[in-house]
Design a protein that fits this description.
Layout lengths: L2 E5 L2 E3 L5 E8 L8 E6 L6 E6 L6 E3 L7 E6 L4 E6 L8 E9 L2 E4 L3 E5 L2
Parallel strand pairs: 2-11
Antiparallel strand pairs: 1-3, 3-8, 4-5, 4-9, 5-6, 7-8, 9-10, 9-11
Length: 116
């Protein structure tokens, strides 16, 4: 059974940093790319970042380029999202997801709140 568990969210002041983790199980992790999405209250879910199966390629939404970095450790079946210079508009629930055999698999999400 595919399982994705996000962690690392919390309350942080503007300009601060957080590192999110997405721990995966139930599939051969190193064969799949992983995406990070976020959803703010009243807004559509949006793609934030993606990383290829081997970690060689990454992509980012324009709104987070230069501030967020995604990486992965395939020995730990975990993907990370390092978020720096956080802004109030980064406040959202953050999810990781993986496309496996024709289905999107999502974690439960972790709340990030950027506020003074």
């Amino acid at each position: 059974q595919v399982q994705l568990v996000e962690s690392g969210g919390g309350l942080v002041q503007p300009g601060g940093s957080l590192r999110l983790s997405c721990a995966a199980s139930g599939f051969t992790f190193g064969r799949y790319g992983v995406n990070w999405y976020r959803q703010a209250p009243g807004k559509e879910r949006e793609l934030v970042a993606g990383i290829s199966s081997g970690g060689d390629f990454t992509n980012y939404a324009d709104s987070v380029k230069g501030r967020f970095t995604t990486s992965r450790d395939n020995t730990k079946s975990t993907v990370y999202l390092q978020m720096n210079s956080l802004k109030p508009e980064d406040t959202a629930v953050y999810y990781c997801n993986v496309w496996i055999n024709g289905f999107w698999n999502w974690g439960q999400g972790t709340q990030v709140t950027v506020s003074s």
